[in-house]
Amino acid sequence: MRNKTIKNNPIQATKNVDLREIVAKLRAASSVAIATHVSPDGDAVGSMLAAANLLQKMGVPCTCLLENPTAHAYSWLPGSKSIVSPNEIPAYPDLILLLDAPRRDRLGLVQDVLPQDATLVVLDHHVDDNPDGDMRLVDASYAATGEIVAELFDVARVPLDAEAALCLYVAIATDTGGFRYASTTARSHRLAARMIEHGVNAAEISQRCFDAMSQAKFSLMARILSRMQFLENTRLAYSEVYPSDLEETGAGAEDINNLINLGRNVEGVQVAILFRGLPDGTTKISVRAAPEFNALRLIVPFGGGGHVGAAGATLAMPLEQARDAVLDVARRLLENSR
Ligand SMILES: [Mn+2]
Question: Could you say which architecture CATH assigns to the domain 4-210?
Answer without folding.
Answer: Alpha-Beta Complex (3.90)
